[in-house]
Amino acid sequence: MTRHHPDSLTLMEYSAGNLSEARALCIRLHLDQCPHCRSRVDTLDSLGAVMMDHQPTVSVDDGSFEQLMARIDAGPEMASPVAYKPRQNPLQKLLGQDINDLPWKRQLGDVSVLDITAKFGDRSEQVVLQKLSAGGKAPAHTHRGDETTIILQGAFSDQNGVFNQWDFVCLDHNDEHRPVAVGHEDCITLSVLSAPLKLTGTFTRFLNPFIR
Fold this sequence. Notes:
single chain; Arc Repressor Mutant, subunit A; 2 domains; 27% helix
């Protein structure tokens, strides 16, 4: 069961179609496995349809919007009323093969990467698959911009807790961490970055000029 979810504002942007293709893919992968967030998106989709139908007469002030977001956030976690059958994994369809069979490239220590930015139309963001070997540690780092991550396989832990398969993570320049793969399998993630990460370790920070 997923424990880390997109916030209401992110789900609202997804519902409205305002996210980039890569960030929307991260949300989609999470929704396919999380009935709680699917229910929230269904609510937002229904609200959006009502507001479009009554656009000339309906106005929503800031207070109403905040109350709505609070109600959605406080809503009970429940399964969708209709049995949900996930469609074909959109990432596997995009890649054409299993994530474990990809041509991974060793980056630093226990970390291997595969840049798939070219598969998306928006080149202003970097889209990268990252594999942290079972039991391995990633270099300590922070972020120069925003990073959206979905865990595709395995799990990792940092100072914020344990993140399991299909958990959703958003980080920015305020976050500094060193993920550690937990369990007996490699931890594979899909990340969308608005700017390169910044290594903060005593020695690895000298590699920053070479990190894209």
